[in-house]
Structures are given as structure tokens and as C-alpha cells.
Amino acid sequence: MSQVHKVSNAVVHQPLRDFLQQILSMSLAKRDVGSVTASDTGLRISTSASFTVGGKFYSKAAASAVWALSGDKINASKHCRFALMLDSAGTGTISQGSIEDTAAAAEVGDIASTKCCVGEVLIQTGTAAFTPGTTTFSQCISAGGSVTVTEYMHPLAA
Q: How far is CA 66 from the centre of its chain?
């Protein structure tokens, strides 16, 4: 009878074990991710950032020029989101998402499993196009557009 109980117990707990394994292997931005701020041509971390990649903890000291946008031109009156990622070495990379007519329709670019997405930047163009790596953020704003930086944090990574 105890053998049956052990088998039954293992079956009941397997979904919980699978769930915990998924949580522990995630890449999450911590609550103290740091302050991601925009300069005119890129994005920086103003304070240190804590994050996980594949369930392991990492830290990135405050740094300027962590991310520089690159990718496809965003025509006038369009919206595009860029994922801001860090890898285990603290190297910043970006992933350009879809270019859409509305901000709600614009999705963040693909996020590699070897990286943690710590935020995003939403480019909303006005009367002029925005070319990542060429157009400055102030030029975008001067043409009636906007640049919105959002930091991510995950409540499980508190």
C-alpha cells in the first residue's frame, strides 16, 4: 500500500515540480533593475541592475551607452517597440518589434532565451520618419513624435 502511495504522490507533485523548474529557469528583471534612461542617441543604466538569465543571478553596474537602437526605418505616423536586453555578461542588445499604425498593435521584438528583457522603448513617429541609429530622440520629438522608456520588473523576482 505504501508503494502505491509513493507512486501516487509522485504523480501529484510532478506538475508542481515542473512549474517550479520553469520559474527557476526564467530570465527576469529584478525590482531593483536600475534606472533605464535615454540620452539623445541611446539608452543607459543610471543605477546598478539586478536580473536573472536562465535562473542565475547577475548584476550590471551603472553604465552609459548600454543600448543603441538599430533596425528598420519607422515611417511617419507609425509606432515601434524595441526590447532592451542584457545577457549574462551584462552586454546590452536590442530587438526591434513590429512597425504598426497604433502603439497597442506594436509588439516588442523577439527575446532570446539567453537574455533578460529589462525594458522596452516605444518610438512613436510624428511628421517625420525615425531611422534607428541615425535619427536622434530629440529629432523624433521635434517632429511631433515621442520616445517612451519602460522598465520591466517581475513580481516573482522581488
A: 13
Type of residue found at 16: L
- pLDDT at 42 > cutoff 90: no
150, three cell numbers: 519602460
Cα 89–chain centre separation: 16
Verdict on whether the full-model pTM lies above 0.70? yes
Tell me how far apart the alpha carbons of residues 2 and 5 are, in angstroms, rounded to a whole number.
5
Look at strands 92-100 and 79-87 and give their pairing.
antiparallel
User: Has residue 118 been placed in a domain?
Assistant: yes
Residue 13's alpha-carbon distances to 3, 8, 9, 31, in angstroms, are 16, 9, 6, 30
Contacts of 89 (CB under 8 A, 6+ apart): none
132 assigned to some structural domain:
yes
Kindly state the percentage of the chain with pLDDT values over 70.
71
The boundaries of the domain holding residue 72 are: 26-157
Q: Residue type at 104?
A: A
Q: How many domains does the chain have?
A: 1
Tell whether 136 is covered by a domain. yes
Confirm if 122 and 115 have CB atoms less than 8 A apart: no
Q: How far is residue 2's CA from residue 152's CA, in Å, rounded to a whole number?
A: 47
